[in-house]
Amino acid sequence: MGETYESVTVEIKDQVAQATLIGPGKGNAMGPAFWSELPEVFAALDADRDVRAIVITGSGKNFSYGLDVPAMGGTFAPLMAEGALARPRTDFHAEVLRMQKATNAVADCRTPTIASVHGWCIGGGVDLISAVDMRYASADAKFSIREVKLAIVADMGSLARLPMILNDGHLRELALTGRDIDAARAEKIGLVNQVFEDADATLAAAHATATEIAANPPLAVYGVKDVLDQQRASAVAENLRYVAAWNAAFLPSKDLTEGISATFAKRPPQFTGEQAAASTYPRGVASMTEDGRIRVPADLDAVTALGAEDHSEIDSAAIERIWQATRYWYQAGMHPAIQLCIRHNGRVVLNRAIGHGWGNAPSDAPDAEKIPVSTDTPFCTYSSAKAITATVVHMLAERGHFSLDDRVCEYIPSYTSHGKDHTTIRHVLTHSAGVPFPTGPRPDVTRADDHDYAARKLGELRPLYPPGLVHIYHALTWGPLMREIIWATTRKEIRDILATEILDPLGFRWTNFGVAEEDLPLVAPSHATGRPLPPVIAAAFRKAIGGTVHEVIPYTNKPLFLRTIIPSSNTVSTANELSRFMEILRRGGELDGVRIMAPETVRSAVTECRRLRPDSATGLAPLRWGTGFMLGSNRFGPFGRNAPAAFGHLGLVNIATWADPDRGLSVGLINSGKPGRDPDAKRYVALKNAITAEIPPKTVE
């Protein structure tokens, strides 16, 4: 097997494979990668003729904590939305069936499987071990079918397969109470075959049995397993279909919301049995229009601004179709203003804006003064800043200020605690530093420009996993780390380096981190739009970015945020300037006679270092990564379909800037609306797909 996985490692020796769960969730919790990868893993093992038995175990102190609730929050969120009806229930039903394929892949594998369980085996962990042929446990193992405590009916296999393993009364006791049982009780009721002294002894026993099986004739072994499985196959399949349908139909409730919210808050849940969870706007949020939408003007042309465009070498009709897709997106009412600028082979072929910079937010009064947006109106572009920062980092590395493989603690001496001393600059740049979320007390934002304070707070971070193990988007921690590394190596602020080396020589007006005091009134505000997020997604947002959009966006409009330097999230720019910045990179690091880095450096920065995978910190959106840059792909990319050469970065929520060398494109797309829930999000995707469809890749003669 040549593949590498985020949720499992595979080792094969002497015809026995060992599949080890590695998370990346705490306690090997089962997140998006697990449910996607496990079918791949077992399909590959089943097809490998050199593998005659498989042992499944968990890394660290536990087998598995089960479902990674924070990472999988997007699966449940639509069900907890107010008035969730057919579409979210249908989508949830399809998702359950997809996830069931993971445990089905284990159960249907022709090769015999043995689980070696130690520590906790909860929920999804029990689903998994119920799908194997034999279960061994260490004396410290504990088991729980805990789904009922989350107001969920276990639907990944335990209720379908355990009736053929356990006495009916024992199963009902475990499933209805959600209580924990120890290894001795598990052995007594038949959940496990045998109990051993510790994890090492358990794993050794599992391998001994696997080796014994592997010594037998493979065809006979397959035959025995097939005949035994045949007795339960139809009953299991029917049960799995039924529980998926049952949960899709009846799961939405206030109890589901309470169960998951209590899990996030680490408190006992208070169940009421009430149906249909409702949601309200957070305390302190101004009154909103219905559904949190803007008042879309009847005359779109009256609120459209046109910049200079050159259609001499492109089909004007194609540009108009792209703009029609932009207008259609605007009409959804989630964005007070939208700017779009596209360069094609260096020429500006589209530079337009639609909507209002001020006065037409959902919280504005109907008679508020409305000021139309222009193509020169600057906005905060949030995480698109990371593309700007990554450019500066690669430029400094090329010039010898540091190597990407230097350890962070060489520049931030406090960054050695809790196992962080092996973290490299590359780990930070590629979102694999192990600190995707801030830990500990919230830092004092008024001290963001205090380098000593920042270094101390960074040193206090506790990694969730070892650096380099997995990639999880570091939304908030990335910027302070990059700022302090650059400060330590140059004794200059990244804002000053960016201005001196790139922006000023090329005549940029904006596109730096924050703005000067006198420019604050010129920056158009961003606005939370749409209905507030359901509690589980709101909790995930608070963990990832410090709050929901309805809670965070008002702060980002304040001078304190817009004046400081936050390399991860407070670039202020226009769509035209973002497009022009990406044009530098599309051209290999040079524009208008100003070279900022070598073409080889750009190529290295946008070479894939992480293949397409869902990311729990970005709402499970599948992403490919270069070194600091998001990469496009053929199907799921952030820059439209069929754009594998594209690279750039997204920003909260629907901001995007990218270059696509195959098409000769550099694009800036800015909007001032930050939807909580956006039922028309597909219009944003459709716009990016329209760009890639209307401007095809260059033909190679």
TrEMBL record:
A GO term, aspect molecular function: isomerase activity
Pathway(s) this gene product operates in, as recorded in its UniProt entry: Lipid metabolism; fatty acid beta-oxidation
Keywords: Fatty acid metabolism, Isomerase, Lipid metabolism
One of the protein's GO biological processes: fatty acid beta-oxidation
Residue ranges of domain Beta-lactamase-related in the record: 331-687
Family, similarity comment: Belongs to the enoyl-CoA hydratase/isomerase family.
Name of this chain's protein: Fusion of enoyl-CoA hydratase, EchA21 and lipase, LipE
Species this chain originates from: Mycobacterium ulcerans (strain Agy99)
